[in-house]
What we know:
Elements: H1 2-10, H2 13-33, H3 37-61, H4 66-90, H5 92-97, H6 99-120, H7 128-147, H8 151-177
Helix pairs in contact: 2-3, 2-4, 3-4, 4-7, 6-8, 7-8
Amino acid sequence: xxxxxxxxxxxxxxxxxxxxxxxxxLAIYVAAFRRDxxxxxxxVLGAVLxxxxxxxxxxxxxxxxxxxxxxxxxxxFLFYLSLxxxxxxxxxxxxxxxxxxxxAFGVLYAVVIVLSHIRFRAIGVHNRLSRTSGTIGVVGTFxxxxxxxEWWVFVTIVGVLCADLAQRYGxxxxxxxxxxxxxxx
Length: 185
């Protein structure tokens, strides 16, 4: 009974956090355009916190839903797709040197998101590897903005992103050609 009362009172909060992340992404663009690194860092931290809190809060309140997961995934996609743009705003040379690789990863992620939506009716995959790739992307972006792109940062980012994409495409292949119990959801 108490959980139902909490859900009625606070059930809107997880969705609000996901939508707040979208607003924060827009504000982050303003900070990056102004090259205001302290404000940029605070806003990115706020966006990351909304990402960390929305899912567990929805599960705790019993308000987790496919719609909520899709809103969260769409907000995540917008945020993570923006990382190269923000890096370019602070360090255009890094992005210029890697523009084809960044574009390839962007296309591969966009395609797998569309295919996942078609196959699973879900925009994203939420698992440890996808969370790791997001974390590595954010930390790698900060490191690159502050100190430039080191080889070990580059190798780490590319390696984790390749593993994440392999897992996502592998889930699609298993769903279409494997046994039903092999599908990761």
